[in-house]
Prior knowledge:
- The structure is a single chain.
- By secondary structure, this protein is an all-alpha fold.
- The protein has one domain.
- It is 81% helix and 0% strand.
Amino acid sequence: MISKLRAFAAFWYDFIIGDDWRVAVGVALAFAATYLASRSTSVALWWIVPIAVLILLPLSIHRVTRRATS
């Protein structure tokens, strides 16, 4: 039973964190910022997360390709 729970946790860790923990933290912060901002205003703020992804993804790709060419 413990090995199945450990495998389940390992799957979700790998699925969410993946190769770059910075992207996972950035997306989590974008979700938190969207939630907090939406609580204080009536303006639709769904666009915060896509913008965060548009910023984080190229940075992650740049960091990986820079390491690969070194």
